[in-house]
Structure formats: C-alpha cells, structure tokens
Amino acid sequence: MPELPDELLNQLLELIDRLRDETKDFIGEAGDQQLWYNRGYANGMVLALRRLGQTERVGQREPDNIDELSAQLAMPWGKAYRHGETVGSTETLEIIGNQST
C-alpha cells in the first residue's frame, strides 16, 4: 500500500470537508441532483481512503449511512449520489495510484 504524502492527503481531506460542508442539507433537497452528486463524491472519497488503510488519518469523517438514504437511491437524485460516490472513489484511487508510480 502506497504511503500518501501528507500534502496530498491534506488536499483530499480539505476537499471532503468542503464538499460535505456545502452539502450538509442534501437530504432536504431531493430535487438538486448536483448537490446529491457532490455529497456522494465526498462519500466515495472517504470510502476509498478507508479502503486504503487511511482510517486513522481520515479521522472523524464517517461514511454516510446508506440505510438512511436507501429510500432515495432509486430516485434521480439518489442515482446522482451513487454515481458521485463511484466517481469520487475511482478518482481518489487514481490520484493515489499515480503518486506511487
């Protein structure tokens, strides 16, 4: 598993924090697919960093509780969330993978 440079990890964590701050009310905004996408993107980043063994450095940033969102996932905004989650995870893994080559 590659060791992440502190600067890179800090940039990723800052992006997670910014996206989560901007999307803190996403559940109440069912029609705003961009908001749901961005929240999913941040969640995907958290999940990817945790899979890479960075749980301690991710700290208090817990993944969203999917059980709370399950009723929304079949709706367009729920699909936007899942797509954002996939892209956020994939791009985080690509960024980290590029650092180790």
List the helices and strands and how they pair.
Layout: H1 6-22, H2 33-51, H3 55-58, H4 66-69, H5 76-99
Helix pairs in contact: 1-2, 2-5
Structural notes for this entry:
The protein is built from 5 helices and no strands. It has one domain. It is an all-alpha fold. The longest helix is centred in the C-terminal third of the chain and has 24 residues, at 76-99. Helix content is 67%, strand content 0%. The mean pLDDT is 92.
Cα Rg: 14 Å
Structural class: mainly alpha
**Beta-strand content bin:** under 5%
**What is the helix/strand order?**
HHHHH
Choose one word for the global shape.
elongated
Number of domains: 1
| Low-pLDDT runs | none
Instruction: Please give the alpha-carbon distance between the first and last residues.
Output: 12 Å
Number of H- or I-type helical stretches = 5
Give average pLDDT, whole number: 92
The largest sheet is: none
- Number of β-strand runs: 0
Can you give the helix content as a percent range?
Answer: 55-70%
Summarize the structure.
This protein is an all-alpha fold. It has helices at about 5-20, 35-50, 55-60, 65-70, 75-100.
Keywords:
elongated, 0% strand, 101 residues
